[in-house]
Amino acid sequence: MNIVFDTNVLISALVFGGNSGKTLDFCIENDEIYISEFITDELSGIMQKKFHLSHSDIVAVNELLASGFSLVKPDTRLPSLCRDKDDNNILQLAEYVNAHFIITGDDDLLVLKQYRNTRIVKPAEFLQIVKSR
Fold this sequence. Notes:
By secondary structure, this protein is an alpha/beta fold. It has one domain (about 1-130): Rossmann fold. The protein is about 55% helix and about 15% strand. It has seven helices and six strands. It has a six-stranded mixed sheet with strand order 3-2-1-4-6-5, with helices on both faces. α1 (about 5-15) crosses α2 (about 20-30) and α1 crosses α3 (about 35-50). It is globular. It starts with a strand and ends with a helix. About 35% of the residues are buried.
């Protein structure tokens, strides 16, 4: 399956583990995960400002992402559907890669439930879906 992780789930997976970490581990093993510069830039900024990671730690996180994810640059029209305009970048990426799922904890995305052919779910819900298959 094609998967897009929202930045908040990536941060949760990398910092805290839990269902976000389990979901990320599962997807690395079983799926194709897509990421964009918008996500890597946002992730780097948050990791530096909120968690005070050093430049070398941020480089290591970006290298980890580069090894397990496909970095793409969507060239399609940016949607204007989300309450938080930055979240439209996640929708754009999902549409561009024909994602089956966006995995997020962001209510501004979750309220949509689906965008085109992409289901929008929390990590725990995703784990339940894949376990039931």
